[in-house]
């Protein structure tokens, strides 16, 4: 049962949190690439991607007949987790010794095909947006259908009968290499809320936490002061484990666009 002092906020808090959970489920890299294992090994080392913010209580109350639209805030919160989680996964892969590395003189389709052919089933490629965005689209200019677009904004590279989905890496990640993967040969373990201890920094409101105990996006709400909630949201995952043939890292020697 919700304590009386929170009853005025309960409905809107739940709507807000549900939006965050839905947004995470629809946009996170683990869901997109489908290489997640459920938590099954307590001996693994886990890492969190987390944010802590003051959440104004008046966001969840009607004021002069109007309510705040919290959708954009919810999506922004989740975007910070999704981006941080993805950067952690990619950087962890770059640290692995068992992932092969190749070099291209320039960002060229034929050279890309030659290198990627070493992977039996390449499914996804992560490419630095700058400087390769324009170059990738130039691959279409000679009339050969090397790139196609499906119901998304990101393109797909065609390689024989294979489709390799492109994911852009922004410059703030400091990742400069191209990473090609076979999503079915990468294993990552993720905890849900009830499998992880509550952060010691927050005195979480139990009725709220209990609503999301089976969710991978962990939400903790506490009392900050009379005007604000203390809000922590996070995910907890292991470093990626790669089977043989799971991926390849490509360094482009000449990164300047022509």
Describe this structure in words.
A hairpin with a 4-residue loop joins strand 10 and strand 11 (228-238). The strands form three sheets. The chain has a seven-stranded mixed beta sheet. Strands 1-9-12 form a three-stranded mixed beta sheet. The chain is an alpha+beta fold and 258 residues long. It is built from six helices and 13 strands.
Give the key terms.
single chain; 258 residues; alpha+beta; hypothetical protein PF0899 fold; 7-stranded mixed β-sheet; 3-stranded mixed β-sheet; 29% helix; 29% strand
Largest sheet: 7 strands, mixed
Helix segment tally: 6
Provide the number of structural domains.
Answer: 2
Strand order across the largest sheet:
3-13-8-4-7-6-5
Would you spell out the secondary-structure blueprint of this structure?
Elements (H helix, E strand, L loop, with lengths): L6 H21 L1 H5 L2 E3 L7 E11 L14 H25 L5 E6 L2 H8 L7 E5 H10 L8 E2 L7 E4 L2 E8 L8 E4 L4 E5 L15 H6 L6 E6 L4 E11 L2 E2 L4 E8 L4
Parallel strand pairs: 1-9, 3-13, 4-7
Antiparallel strand pairs: 2-11, 4-8, 5-6, 6-7, 8-13, 9-12, 10-11
Helix pairs in contact: 1-3
């Amino acid at each position: 049962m919700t304590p009386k002092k929170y009853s005025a906020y309960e409905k809107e808090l739940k709507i807000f949190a549900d939006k965050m959970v839905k947004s995470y489920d629809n946009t996170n890299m683990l869901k997109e690439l489908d290489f997640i294992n459920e938590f099954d090994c307590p001996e693994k080392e886990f890492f969190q991607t987390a944010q802590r913010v003051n959440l104004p209580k008046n966001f969840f109350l009607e004021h002069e007949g109007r309510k705040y639209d919290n959708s954009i805030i919810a999506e922004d919160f989740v975007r910070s987790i999704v981006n941080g989680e993805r950067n952690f996964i990619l950087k962890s892969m770059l640290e692995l010794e068992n992932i092969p590395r190749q070099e291209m003189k320039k960002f060229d389709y034929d050279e890309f095909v030659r290198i990627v052919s070493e992977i039996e089933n390449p499914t996804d490629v992560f490419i630095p947006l700058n400087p390769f965005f324009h170059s990738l689209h130039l691959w279409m200019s000679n009339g050969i259908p090397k790139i196609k677009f499906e119901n998304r904004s990101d393109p797909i590279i065609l390689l024989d009968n294979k489709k390799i989905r492109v994911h852009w890496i922004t410059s703030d990640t400091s990742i400069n290499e191209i990473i090609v993967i076979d999503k079915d040969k990468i294993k990552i373990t993720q905890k849900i809320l009830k499998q992880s201890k509550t952060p010691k920094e927050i005195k979480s409101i139990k009725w709220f936490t209990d609503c999301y105990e089976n969710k991978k996006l962990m939400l903790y709400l506490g009392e900050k002061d009379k005007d604000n909630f203390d809000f922590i949201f996070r995910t907890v995952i292991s470093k990626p484990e790669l089977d043989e043939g799971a991926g390849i890292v490509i360094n482009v020697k000449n990164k300047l666009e022509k």
